[in-house]
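Bit of a strange request maybe. I'm writing a small parser for structure token strings and I need a real example to test against, not something I typed by hand. Could someone generate the tokens for this chain?
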Amino acid sequence: MLIKAPLDSTHIAHLKRNGMLHPDEDVINSYKAGEGNMNVILTIKTNKRYFVLKQSRPFVAKYPQIPAPLERIEIEYKYYKAINKDNLLACFSPNVLGFDKAAWLLALEYLNMGGDYLWLYEKNASLKEEVADLMLTYLKKLHQLPVTDFPTNQEMRELNHQHIFVLPYLPENGFNLDDVQEGLQDLSAMVKNNPALIEKIHLLGERYLRLGKVLIHGDFYPGSWFETGRGLKIIDTEFAFLGDPEFDLAVMLAHLKMARTSESELQRIIKSYPLENALLAQYTGVEILRRLFGLAQLPLSLSLVEKKELATYAINLIFNEKI
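Reply from user aminoacidic:
Good idea to test on real output. This should exercise your parser:
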């Protein structure tokens, strides 16, 4: 069963059979819940409540030409199940209301008010220090969680690996960056024509593909941070796996850098959660480069000159291995 808005009688009957809808519950409305990248996401309004349905497809929802494993929705479910054993981490997660593996369907609590943090990329926007500290609290607790049997999530890691460590650096990768910003395609030559850089990124990518020892979120950027009436929630966990804690923190740092966060605040964050600095620097640099020159573009309000400065900063992180 493939869900779509509005839900029809077949969908509703299925949701009642699998317990996601109560027997006496009537669906009043159903509609697309924002622009999900990976999955189809619907908000369901009934006569009793709101809730959210997420379903994976055998491709990326935003880019149907890119195949993606159906099992990713089960990874998200198992991630929430694993971290909800810890009371602090559970406070950062939406409640899981049901999982239907046969339909690759996940029902989650509806998060009201606020929204994600993609507004951070706007000019003059900034992340409050206390919110950054909350995110660090989350990451520290997550990375200390005793987890040994989490799925390898191999197919999703291989998909992410291609888009982080490989495709942005190929001369002919099918991305016309001038469609994003005039002149960006020519600017990408600074990474595509740098074999020493590409080799460093290749080696880091090999490390990313190896299993680590701690559970990581795997996509800890502003689109996965969600402000609600009950505080900060961390969502969209389908890229989770056992890996390097530096990867999560590096993604956070990379996006704060792209959002014009001050160097003093970045250093404060790094000192607040000391990890292997060389690895942190390299992962941060690669995340910046792939967001500038890869398929997964951001709503960055940056000039071409600013993007060149960012790319130079990222390249220096990768070569100097220090942040």
